[in-house]
């Protein structure tokens, strides 16, 4: 169905997927997961109108790119050539720049009752990134899970870091400070004042960042987190909401995950207030294009970028 028309005059569609206990509404605008219902309860934050997504969203449910997370100084060097990106997060470029993938209308490449594939072509020089990138994301409902598959190819060397920016609230209301998080990560990336990694992969043991055992999100730091964790590759990330008993388990092929607890959500500027939802953005590390010691995010012609993340809701 038609969801609305963008300020650029593009038509955005809304498609509803359903399978078993789950249903999801997906928009072609931003490849957004507008809603994800588990046994009838919506567990993600979203906007009701396209106008709100264009003016009041903080990446709610969107695929962010070409490079998700921050690039320091809005610049990086690849094969000896410096590339300059828009600054939209203080001195940094965030989530692909001022006109990232979250603000584009994607094309429906495939559709079935429980799955949708969306495709986007990002031209050479788009937001300062080199190479024409053809990206695709597939959302599939299967059993008790939403599976997200990413794919991208390029015609020139570039950098890619795609992720979904859904904010989850397993109660479907209130804040998420009482949610209980277990993170299979013994290291995290400390950041400077501009939230750029220092380069250290620091142990979480003995710090407020230790979620290797079940911990209430709001128990430390006032619940404020916007940090990347280095996943151990053992077991899922697990979040439990005590009152509803609802549980979400996240598995991914990515080396890291950004935990963001929505501390900066502003009820005057968005439909939600602080801590209304938490994000688990599975991805490569922030600022990797400027950090050769981090896992590479470079994609070259003839290569394929692939990534899979699954959000499961066991009964």
UniProtKB/TrEMBL annotation:
Residues annotated as binding beta-D-galactose: 69-70, 165-167, 226
Pathway: Carbohydrate metabolism; hexose metabolism
Signal peptide: none
Domain of life according to the entry: Bacteria
GO biological process assignments: galactose catabolic process via UDP-galactose, Leloir pathway; glucose metabolic process
GO molecular function: aldose 1-epimerase activity; carbohydrate binding
Catalytic reaction annotation: alpha-D-glucose = beta-D-glucose
Gene Ontology CC terms, in alphabetical order: cytoplasm
SUPFAM superfamilies xrefs: Galactose mutarotase-like
A family per Pfam: Aldose_epim
Broad class of enzyme this protein falls into: isomerase
InterPro entries: Ald1_epimerase_CS, Aldose_1-epimerase, Aldose_1/G6P_1-epimerase, Gal_mutarotase_sf_dom, Galactose_mutarotase-like, GH-type_carb-bd
Residues at the catalytic site: 165 (proton donor), 281 (proton acceptor)
NCBIfam families: PRK11055.1
Family: Belongs to the aldose epimerase family.
The protein's name in its UniProt record: Aldose 1-epimerase
Record lineage: Bacteria, Bacillati, Actinomycetota, Actinomycetes, Streptosporangiales
């Amino acid at each position: 169905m038609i969801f609305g028309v963008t300020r650029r005059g593009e038509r955005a569609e809304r498609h509803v997927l359903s399978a078993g206990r789950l249903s999801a509404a997906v928009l072609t605008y931003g490849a957004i997961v507008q809603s994800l219902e588990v046994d009838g309860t919506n567990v993600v934050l979203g906007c009701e109108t396209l106008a709100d997504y264009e003016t009041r969203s903080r990446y709610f449910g969107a695929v962010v790119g070409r490079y998700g997370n921050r690039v320091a100084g809005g610049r990086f060097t690849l094969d000896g050539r410096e590339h300059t990106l828009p600054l939209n997060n203080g001195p940094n470029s965030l989530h692909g720049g001022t006109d990232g993938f979250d603000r584009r209308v994607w094309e429906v490449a495939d559709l079935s009752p429980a799955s949708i594939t969306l495709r986007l072509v990002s031209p050479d020089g788009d937001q300062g990134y080199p190479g024409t990138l053809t990206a695709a994301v597939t959302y599939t409902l299967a059993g008790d899970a939403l599976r997200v598959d990413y794919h991208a190819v390029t015609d020139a060397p570039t950098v890619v870091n795609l992720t979904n920016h859904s904010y989850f609230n397993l109660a479907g209301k209130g804040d998420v400070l009482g949610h209980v998080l277990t993170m299979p990560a013994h290291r995290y990336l400390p950041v400077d004042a501009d939230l750029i990694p220092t380069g250290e992969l620091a142990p979480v043991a003995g710090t407020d960042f230790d979620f290797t055992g079940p911990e209430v999100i709001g128990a430390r730091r006032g619940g404020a987190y916007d940090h990347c964790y280095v996943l151990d590759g053992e077991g899922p990330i697990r979040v439990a909401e005590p009152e509803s008993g609802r549980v979400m388990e996240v598995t991914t092929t990515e080396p890291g995950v950004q935990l963001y607890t929505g501390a900066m959500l502003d009820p005057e500027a968005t439909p939600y207030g602080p801590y209304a939802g938490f994000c688990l953005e599975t991805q490569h590390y922030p600022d990797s294009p400027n950090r050769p010691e981090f896992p590479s995010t470079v994609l070259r012609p003839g290569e394929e970028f692939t990534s899979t993340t699954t959000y499961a809701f066991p009964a």
